[in-house]
Write a structure and sequence with these properties.
Length: about 270
């Protein structure tokens, strides 16, 4: 994978390539086998891999993020999504605890018949909607996580804004320009402004809150917008670039993707 990344010719080429499946075969597993409901995707083999624990949005099953999680696995990142707290009144603190447990399990046991292991020093939290806020709650109470990604972040209780002040690792916030569920002005933007570490806040101009989801679900009747293939494709490239940069110490063209100009998006702030 490192050799494939070294062939990238600038940010545009990097984004184009990272938006497509990577060179590795992804396997799907069930977190329920280790006592946590949810899914995990990983390359078919590899030792000391980076990993990310992903939190779902309000009412959403973890399966609606399979497209992104599988994609990350093809690029060498173990990606796991706990599936608890799907009811109308979820415990955000409980979701954060599940995220931390998920990372601990991934780093503490061999996956894939013992052919896959995770380096606990190369881990991150991520999430969509309230899951984005939950990712910050989890990171604020986790000493070893190296990065955070939020997608269309929604505020949480306990406060994601307060948690962000305690998070000193690099954070990428992706927001939707047409988000009427959790508009950036009231959610991601103040959270980004309170960041305790380096942050990039990027808006996908034509995206909606639910554009990042895959498939259909009864909750679509309650939320504005709809799943969008172009939004998911762009998100795959941006998230993959950021996580590879932060968890695998890859730079060069990845820096251009993370902080540079990307068509259809706008970097609102960075520090």
């Amino acid at each position: 994978m490192r050799s494939q990344l070294s062939d990238l010719r600038g940010g545009k080429d990097a984004l184009e390539q990272l938006s497509r499946p990577g060179p590795l075969t992804a396997l799907r597993g069930d977190l329920g086998m280790v006592g946590i409901p949810g899914v995990v995707f990983a390359p078919e083999e590899g030792l000391g891999l980076p990993a990310v624990a992903f939190a779902h949005d309000w009412l959403q099953p973890a399966s609606r993020y399979a497209d992104l999680l599988r994609h990350l696995a093809t690029w060498g990142i173990v990606a796991a999504a706990p599936g608890g707290h799907q009811g109308p009144l979820p415990s955000h603190a409980g979701m954060a605890a599940d995220l931390r447990t998920t990372l601990e399990v991934c780093a503490g046991v061999r996956l894939g018949d013992g052919r896959i292991s995770v380096d606990a020093r190369r881990t991150a939290f991520a999430g969509h909607g309230i899951g984005g806020g939950v990712a910050l709650l989890a990171a604020a109470g986790h000493a070893r996580a190296r990065a955070v990604v939020t997608i269309a972040l929604a505020q949480t209780r306990p406060s994601a804004l307060e948690a962000a002040r305690k998070v000193t690792v690099p954070t990428l916030h992706l927001t939707a320009g047409r988000d009427t569920v959790a508009p950036a002005a009231g959610h991601a933007e103040p959270v980004s402004a309170s960041a305790g570490g380096a942050v990039v806040l990027r808006t996908l101009k034509k995206a909606t809150h639910t554009g990042f989801l895959d498939g259909t679900h009864w909750s679509d009747l309650l939320l504005s917008g709809s799943p969008d293939a172009k939004t998911r494709r762009l998100t795959r490239g941006l998230v993959t670039a950021f996580l590879l940069r932060e968890l695998s110490d890859e730079n060069g063209p990845l820096d251009e993707v993370v902080v540079g100009k990307v068509p259809g998006t706008e970097v609102v702030s960075r520090s």
